[in-house]
Specification:
D-amino Acid Aminotransferase, Chain A, domain 1; 2 domains; four-stranded antiparallel beta sheet; 11 helices
Length: about 325
């Protein structure tokens, strides 16, 4: 890799070359990685589990809307197109600043906290507090901008996003806590699974439920504490509606929200949740959600599909 860069080739050219090389070889690294994570083989010719289909989408689906909605800056244009100006302004988290270089963030004149994020990937985020060293914050921003994201696993959508740093308002509850996350997994415009996350920066609790808030046992828990019984979700119906509208053009995507009082805020839209590496505790649930990628199953319940799968297995 380094010798390639040493010859002066731009990073994006290397990433394209790497993808083509792996494609010609049949994506052996992806197959090995997938088997290591899930304990069953990756099938790219006839994917049938949820995780297989995510990887297939990463490698095969070149819908330009996936790039647009994966970009934390330009997704705002998409939201306004789908929902209209008034509703969009109500649910989009206010931005303080967007930077191309990281050098021009005016920290010395700010005496408030904000989330700093890079728009071209996942995990590039930092809670910046008053008093933090401006030089260190700007250096981190520049480092993020220098980094590619997701190309070793062929997460295509992030490759060509024009890189930016965004400075975003920090949402807090009346108790001054970071609000819970509500992640709506949508299939052909129909939300079918919801991940509810609380205490994300402390001792995380999580639970997966279906669209009717029934517990989905066997989901991707990773040993975290189970958030059950489920606390009230007063804005659930509204988030269901918004997720359905925003996910309409896609076979699958996840739409994330925060809910504070009677307000709902959009977190992000993501297409490659977990890069297809998030193992279900129950393999049958992975298969059941794979069935929901089919348009003819849009109106079916995942619990109904799961029951059918388990009945056939026995």
């Amino acid at each position: 890799m380094m010798s390639f860069f040493a010859k002066g080739y731009p990073q994006k050219i290397w990433e394209r070359a790497y993808f083509l090389k792996e494609k010609m070889r049949g994506f052996p690294k992806m197959h090995a990685f997938f088997y290591h994570n899930h304990g069953y083989q990756l099938d790219l010719k006839q994917p049938f589990t949820h995780n297989q289909r995510i990887v297939h989408k990463m490698i095969m689906d070149r819908n330009p809307l996936i790039v647009l909605t994966s970009d934390k800056v330009r997704v705002r244009e998409y939201v306004k197109e789908m929902l209209g100006e008034k509703l969009s302004n109500d649910i989009l988290i206010p931005l303080y600043f967007v930077s191309k270089t990281g050098n021009d963030i005016p920290l010395e004149s700010w005496n408030f906290e904000f989330f700093m994020k890079a728009n071209h990937g996942s995990g590039f985020n930092k809670l910046v507090l008053p008093g933090d060293d401006p030089a260190e914050v700007r250096q981190l921003a520049k480092y993020w901008l220098s980094q590619s994201f997701g190309q070793s696993r062929h997460e295509w959508a992030y490759r060509d996003i024009p890189r930016r740093i965004i400075c975003e308002k920090v949402l807090r509850t009346p108790e001054n806590e970071i609000p819970a996350d509500f992640k709506y997994y949508c299939f052909n415009g129909a939300p079918k699974m919801i991940l509810v996350l609380t205490d994300r920066f402390k001792r995380q609790k999580r639970v997966f439920v279906d669209e009717n808030l029934n517990l989905l046992e066997g989901s991707q828990m990773y040993g975290n504490d189970v958030l059950w019984p489920l606390p009230p979700i007063p804005n659930h119906a509204r988030m269901l509606d918004l997720a359905s509208k925003l996910s309409q053009p896609f076979t699958y995507c996840r739409v994330d929200f925060y809910s504070i009082g009677d307000r709902v805020y959009l977190g992000e839209i993501t297409h490659y949740s977990g890069a297809g590496a998030e193992k279900f505790d129950d393999y049958d649930l992975d298969v059941a959600f794979g069935e929901l990628w089919k348009k003819e199953n849009r109106h079916r319940s995942v619990l109904e599909i799961l029951e059918t799968i388990k009945a056939h297995r026995h």
